[in-house]
Write a structure and sequence with these properties.
The structure is a homodimer of 353-residue chains. By secondary structure, chain A is α/β, with parallel strands linked by helices. Chain A folds into 2 domains: 187 residues, Isopropylmalate Dehydrogenase, CATH 3.40.718.10; 151 residues, Isopropylmalate Dehydrogenase, CATH 3.40.718.10. In chain A, the strands form 2 sheets. The first copy, chain A, has a 10-stranded mixed β-sheet with strand order 2-1-3-12-11-4-5-10-8-9, with helices on both faces. In chain A, strands 6-7 form a two-stranded antiparallel sheet. The two termini of chain A are 19 Å apart. At the A-B interface, β6, β7, α7, α8 and α9 of A face β6, β7, α7, α8 and α9 of B. The structure holds 3-isopropylmalic acid (IPM) (2 copies). One 3-isopropylmalic acid sits at the interface of chains A and B.
């Protein structure tokens, strides 16, 4: 099979971790007789530096022509202290999501037995956790009308959802639940927000099409609590953009394996795969960043974008092996123990595939 | 001193826990030579049942005339499955906040040494945690225009803030930080939302008036993570209404002492004190609910509404004693150990003041 993949390495440690995922993907392709063509493109702070905008049209064209996008991370500290600066890396991210129609952000949180003691939660709370958030990514308050009135003294952000947007996301949620334990949780704030009431009534109306799926409806504040108390009581959760932003990040730290969590953003035109960790500027160029989340994002890409399940499983298996054998970067080793560099971990994965 | 207090017991276990707080408050008043006049009033589901609305005008009048309000909890399961029902207990809560101008919700999260092992977090993560959220309570997306368009197919909720609203809340935050460790964290989403940019620029402009306070600005998703990872790295946090709803609930479960957490809603006309736990319908009438959060809310009331610090400290001391000696309700005892009823705990507190 010919796999045509856009490669958006981005900023900070992005290029380093993406590099290892490319090595592993190429090795898998060779083993299973596929041919990958990678097309690199600029996004984020590096794109601002090079061409003045964080998501250039050329990058967009490359993504539109690709079968899938592998993404590193974006962001640079020089933009951190002024969130109202006219051009910022995050704007590129939002523009990319909107223009590529990446409406469903798939964010699994699961545990690795060998890493469970890294969790801030007690073992008995976190053991067995295996949940997936589907966060709506192209609507809501992120993209509604926003601005100032009264000479700048009043600010507003409008949150808007259409029934069709909710249906599109919820459909993916029901379908995903059918492949798992058939439990779906719709997270909203329907006791206060009209958009949440639209979410809830839309999902309620879809229940009859998926009679095997048990749906629960929970308020976002209650979910923020239960994620810490009993994370393993959840399976698939669907929610709107802003709630998803907050809850997926909360969920990511409970496992103790945040540095290993992959994600996908599923779109109308193409889908994008990226580690959930950020650009980690302090580590840039030091060859110490953990590449496993990006490698596991590539595994998601093989499985979901190309239907290549055996290839994905082979990648996951070798990642597990590296964890078991302690061939990991310094963030995953207890004090004093031997650690490996970013590229050494990548090399080891390739050699042990 | 004469203390004129409105008593809004509400629904579920509200009346039972409020009853014990009244007993303890009366005993303290006697000891310190104050005279409390309690004026009961209806709110919540019980008000809907009695007079058809969740926050009757008569209740509002009583609150307006009072020096402080002691509140139990509201909510009843018969309203749980239909968040768009025309009359709901929560509407009373929102109306009460708005009409009483309760603009600052003060939500401490702290640990009790004897309860630390109840936390879902590991001991070393939670030990020493002592933080306070100030949540803006009468603005934002809760109270902006909301509705439907396109024949019901599109829903919207507008989030609005004025500079004056932000200043009012932030001022309380700076003042509170001055009485504590002089660290203030402003939680926003200024990389996406215009209202958050207004929050951030307003707080930034106030920094010069409080040169001793160190202010940090963090995105809401990052705070949702750090609350689980390093809760004791925070001191005072200020944030808008919806972020506060989610984050204060998240924070409440990390301590392991959720059933003990008090809160205050500070207003223009009066202030309201309530336990953060809800109406816990399953326990209604069983005399098993934990009254300590309400008792500690009464302590906050003595200190903040009336400036009676010694009285507040006396209440906190006897609560600590009950915890140390294990005179607690069943939610706080390990399996098998002896527990006490709601009223027995209250009686013990009164006897040991
Ligand atoms: C950088 C920011 C705009 C972005 C978001 O809020 O969506 C990030 O937090 C994320 O979750 O991908
Ligand atoms: C019941 C609900 C409207 C309320 C809120 O969202 O403010 C509650 O969750 C709270 O935090 O007091």
């Amino acid at each position: 099979m010919k796999l045509n993949i856009a490669l958006l390495a981005g900023d900070g440690i992005g290029p380093e971790v993406v590099n290892e995922a490319v090595k592993v993907s190429d090795a898998i392709a060779k083993k299973f007789n596929h041919e990958i063509s990678w097309t690199p493109a600029l996004t984020g702070a590096c794109a601002i530096d090079a061409v003045g905008v964080p998501y250039p049209d050329e990058t967009h064209d490359i993504c539109m022509k690709a079968d899938a996008v592998l993404f590193g991370a974006i962001g640079h500290p020089k933009y951190d202290n002024d969130p109202s600066a006219p051009v910022r890396p995050e704007q590129g991210l939002l523009l990319m999501r909107k223009k590529l129609g990446l409406f469903a952000n798939v964010r699994p949180t699961f545990t690795f037995p060998s890493l469970i003691d890294n969790s801030p939660l007690k073992r008995e709370r976190i053991e067995g956790t295996d949940l997936v958030f589907l966060r709506e990514l192209t609507g809501g308050i992120y993209f509604g009308e926003k601005g100032r009135k009264d000479g700048g003294e009043t600010a507003f952000d409008n949150c808007v959802y259409t029934r069709a947007e909710v249906q599109r996301l919820a459909k993916k949620g029901f379908e995903l639940a059918m492949t798992r334990s058939k439990k779906l949780c719709c997270v909203d704030k329907a006791n206060v927000l009209e958009t949440s009431r639209l979410w809830r009534e839309t999902v309620q109306a879809m229940e009859k099409d998926y009679p095997e799926v048990t749906v629960s409806y929970e308020f976002v504040d209650a979910v923020a609590m239960r994620l810490v108390q009993w994370p393993n009581s959840y399976d698939v959760l669907i929610t709107e953009n802003l709630f998803g932003d907050i809850l997926t990040d909360e969920a990511s730290v409970i496992s103790g394996s945040m540095g290993l969590m992959p994600s996908a953003s599923v779109g109308e035109h193409t889908s994008l795969y990226e580690p959930i960790h950020g650009s980690y500027p302090q580590a840039t160029g030091l060859n110490i960043a953990n590449p496993l989340a990006t490698v596991l994002s590539a595994a998601m890409m093989f499985e979901d974008a190309f239907g290549l399940k055996a290839e994905a499983e082979a990648i996951r298996a070798v990642v597990n092996k590296s964890l078991e054998q302690g061939v990991v970067t310094e963030d995953l080793v207890a004090n004093g123990a031997k650690s490996y560099s970013t590229s050494e971990v990548g090399d080891w994965l390739v050699a042990n595939l």
